[in-house]
Structure to design on (907 residues):
């Protein structure tokens, strides 16, 4: 820390440390040979409170009025806490409670703040104080002594001489935090393979498509042309890992005019009479692609605006996502309910490093 | 009237123990005894002597850092209150509190306890909202404070390291903001975490595993809120507090910068002493900052999680927005052109993730190292305690404006959907305009700013040499009309002429007669910085030029 025993006092003294500061290389700065002289401080202008005792008295009154107001605010806040309860769970009461309590606290704070600032600006002596700066670097003697101390320590310990001792010490110091790093392996599950988990969802052959969030099965006949359903697999709500499974298995179900659907031959039979099911989890960073535009048959992700065309197997037509939304092959069971033919044929959701190896 | 009164000229009123003392009141005897008791056990008189009259210069722009500091104090106070009620657990419960629309809904304990803070704890909602507003104020104040430091050149020697520390504080504040925002486990913050999960998974080699470690398995898991809570209330605040202390220690070591002005030189600090003036003003200012934040917490709803509901991976509302300070990162994701993901060597390369991460990382590093780059270009090894007016460092100012516009384009992109719906534009159009702005904005901003700075410098020169236009037209005996110029006084002139002026670096062969590539590069940068320089008025110029008008 810069020592400044003469804080606020020495105006003229220039310590020896300042010399090195003056002679530091200016680089490409232009150091003019002749310069203007700093004109020094302009005449000090007294405030009205310095010259007019009446104004001074008035300012004093204002300052303590602020402090009084602050006390009033604190008391008001405490009183409001008791006078405006929120127990009945009525939002109007909550709003009133928050507002009255807040007004009291705000008054207490502003009173204190404005009072103190007003006091300092209008009543406290406002002459300019001056501190002298010194170069931040230590004085030559201090620096020399510091070097000397390191030398002495080096000689006394043999730090530089006993190189094997030093190097093994450094090695030990580098090695000792490593177990702590390894311990963080415990953050992740021990017996799970992430890639395997990411490749599969709850969907399986014969699983019924059910409504999100009620879990009621959906009849194909209920899916009218142009409608869209948020879908989860049967039994998801009872699953032990409800949210984890839902984060992978959420599906959007839509019915289009079959003539508009362009289906590739290898996906023939994945849809049912114009009803198609696609993963709802965006292939960009995993937001739910929840906005369906019925007229254009576009799905829009509200997070980063990736847009998918349902008529073209949900390929990306705009936005940062690259891959199409995976399609869930569906069929209808004997009772007319929609079921999955199988799980998705590729991992759903955001891309990950090992994805293409699966 | 003396222009400067210093403590030296005032007679020392300190009571020497030997002096026969006049009869004193009980309270002053008590004060003396208490002070003596404490000093004999702490040596605190030395601290008072060292810092009691330390001088702080006065300027409105120096208060920006104070705003950041004070809002941090508000965050600590309100945050501590919240910890007494918040439960950082993701165990599923059925909500049964006072907020009727969510009664019977399954949610995490974190969400339910946050609802309890809002609806069942008296003053809980107020404190929660003050906490959130204080956090937003904290980050905004740091950002503006950094801009002040940058545009006035306050990062120059000896303050480069404090710039780095301050920058780390900014990053820590962002991390605090994001971790805190995620704690209630509501729908909006859960979507934010989902994006983080997707972002991490897209990173090459380590992404999948880092995501699994962070979330304790598959997203969302049941660990993340508890882990973020440890970070939010323990680890990050501890690091932040240490860095903040270090930041302030350096402010004391370096003493505060000041503007150049009459009587204000590079070797002094002119302002008010800590006791009493600065302490009263800064202390009062703390309460005003606290008051403004409390006012926002009282009247303006922030983060109404009860409207969003608990996190569920399936629903999401249109117009999802992160808190504003994360916007630049979200915007970077949005502005990526389509199709940037490839399968190569049996692995997935998500350049739609990697590129924004690199761009943001590059931007952050550029801000971090700027002081060292400028110091290398100028080669200036002197200490700088006088601030630059932005116009007097045209290239630096222009680079700063370019950086601000780059950030602004990313930030604006985070609201692309809101802009599109509010102004009835197509989302594609908004994104494309934003993409163009990201590249063209900084370039145009740079060129315009540099020209504006140079023009202002020329105007300053003109005024220093010839004075202000007085508006008085005089007809000379010969029939010529002139406008009389009013010369500036020496105080006014000093502010116009006292600044650092650099020349472009001249390339010179080194001792072995070679010109190295590094030197060429440095000279090129130096030319870029300083070739348009406008030199300050010299006394000779003033003498020869003042008779012209």
């Amino acid at each position: 820390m810069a020592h400044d025993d003469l804080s606020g006092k020495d105006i003229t003294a220039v310590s020896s440390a300042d010399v090195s500061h003056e002679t530091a290389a200016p680089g490409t700065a232009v150091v003019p040979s002749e310069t203007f002289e700093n004109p020094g401080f302009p005449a000090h202008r007294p405030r009205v409170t310095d010259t007019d005792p009446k104004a001074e008295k008035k300012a004093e009154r204002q300052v303590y009025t602020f402090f009084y107001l602050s006390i009033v605010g604190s008391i008001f806040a405490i009183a409001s806490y008791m006078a405006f309860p929120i127990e009945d769970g009525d939002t109007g009461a909550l709003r009133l409670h928050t507002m009255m309590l807040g007004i009291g606290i705000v008054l207490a704070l502003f009173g204190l703040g404005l009072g103190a600032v007003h006091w300092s600006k209008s009543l406290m002596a406002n002459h300019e104080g001056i501190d002298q700066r010194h170069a931040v670097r230590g004085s030559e003697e201090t620096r020399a002594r510091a070097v000397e101390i390191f030398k002495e320590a080096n000689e006394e310990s043999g730090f530089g001489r006993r190189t094997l001792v030093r190097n093994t010490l450094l090695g030990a110091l580098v090695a000792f935090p490593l177990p702590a790093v390894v311990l963080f392996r415990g953050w992740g599950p021990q017996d799970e393979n992430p890639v395997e988990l990411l490749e599969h969802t709850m969907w399986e052959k014969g699983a019924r498509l059910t409504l999100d969030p009620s879990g009621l099965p959906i009849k194909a006949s209920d899916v009218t042309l142009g409608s869209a359903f948020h879908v989860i697999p049967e039994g998801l709500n009872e699953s032990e890992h409800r949210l984890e499974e839902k984060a992978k298995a959420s599906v959007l179900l839509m019915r289009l005019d079959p003539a508009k659907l362009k289906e590739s031959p290898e996906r023939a039979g994945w849809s049912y009479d114009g009803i198609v099911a696609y993963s709802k989890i965006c292939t960009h960073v995993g937001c739910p692609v929840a906005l369906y535009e019925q007229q254009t048959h576009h799905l829009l992700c509200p997070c980063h605006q990736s847009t998918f065309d349902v008529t073209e197997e949900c390929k990306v037509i705009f936005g940062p996502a690259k891959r199409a939304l995976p399609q869930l092959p569906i069929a209808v069971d004997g009772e007319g309910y929609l079921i999955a033919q199988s799980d998705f044929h590729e991992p759903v959701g955001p891309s990950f490093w090992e994805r293409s190896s699966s | 009237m003396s222009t400067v009164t210093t403590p030296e000229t005032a007679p020392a009123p300190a009571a020497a123990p030997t002096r026969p003392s006049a009869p004193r009141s009980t309270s002053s005897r008590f004060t003396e005894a208490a002070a003596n008791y404490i000093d004999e056990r702490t040596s605190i008189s030395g601290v008072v002597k060292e810092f009691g009259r330390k001088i702080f210069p006065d300027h409105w722009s120096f208060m920006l850092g104070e705003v950041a500091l004070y809002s941090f104090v508000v965050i600590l106070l309100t945050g501590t209150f919240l910890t007494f009620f918040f439960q950082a657990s993701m165990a599923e419960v059925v909500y049964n509190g006072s907020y009727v629309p969510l009664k019977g809904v399954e949610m995490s304990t974190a969400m339910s306890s946050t609802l309890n803070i809002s609806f069942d704890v008296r003053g809980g909602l107020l404190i929660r909202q003050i906490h959130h507003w204080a956090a937003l104020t904290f980050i905004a104040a740091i950002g503006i404070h950094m801009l002040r430091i940058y545009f006035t050149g306050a990062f120059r020697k000896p303050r480069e390291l404090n710039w780095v520390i301050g920058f780390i504080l900014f990053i820590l504040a962002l991390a605090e903001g994001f971790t805190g925002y995620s704690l209630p486990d509501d729908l909006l913050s859960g979507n934010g975490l989902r994006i983080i999960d997707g972002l991490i998974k897209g990173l090459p080699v380590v992404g999948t595993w880092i995501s699994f470690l962070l979330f304790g398995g598959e997203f969302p898991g049941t660990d993340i809120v508890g882990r973020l809570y440890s970070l939010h209330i323990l680890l990050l605040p501890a690091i932040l507090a240490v860095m903040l202390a270090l930041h302030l220690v350096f402010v004391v070591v370096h003493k505060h910068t000041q503007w150049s002005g009459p009587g204000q030189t590079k070797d002094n600090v002119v302002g008010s002493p800590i006791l009493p003036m600065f302490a009263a003003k800064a202390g009062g200012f703390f309460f005003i900052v606290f008051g403004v934040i409390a006012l926002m917490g009282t009247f303006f709803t922030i983060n109404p999680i009860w409207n969003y509901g608990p996190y569920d991976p399936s629903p999401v509302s249109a117009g999802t927005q992160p808190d504003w300070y994360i916007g630049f990162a979200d915007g970077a994701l949005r502005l990526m052109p389509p199709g940037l993901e490839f399968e190569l060597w049996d692995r997935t390369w998500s350049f739609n993730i990697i590129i924004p991460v690199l761009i943001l990382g590059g931007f952050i590093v550029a801000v971090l190292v700027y002081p060292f780059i400028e110091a290398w270009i100028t080669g200036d090894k002197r200490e700088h305690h006088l601030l630059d007016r932005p116009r007097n460092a045209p290239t630096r100012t222009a680079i700063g404006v370019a950086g601000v516009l780059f950030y602004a384009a990313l930030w604006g992109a985070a609201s692309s959907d809101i802009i599109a719906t509010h102004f009835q534009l197509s989302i594609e159009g908004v994104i494309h305009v934003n993409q163009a702005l990201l590249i063209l904005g900084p370039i145009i901003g740079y060129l315009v700013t540099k020209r504006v700075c140079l023009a202002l410098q020329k105007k300053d020169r003109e005024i220093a040499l010839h004075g202000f236009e007085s508006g008085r037209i005089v007809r000379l005996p010969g029939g010529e009309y002139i406008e009389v110029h009013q010369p500036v006084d020496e105080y006014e002139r000093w502010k116009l002429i006292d600044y650092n002026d650099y020349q472009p670096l001249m390339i010179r062969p080194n001792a072995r007669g070679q010109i190295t590539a590094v030197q060429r590069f440095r000279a090129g940068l130096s030319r870029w910085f300083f070739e348009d320089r406008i030199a300050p008025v010299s006394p000779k110029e003033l003498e020869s030029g003042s008779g012209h008008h």
Summary: The mean pLDDT of chain A is 88.
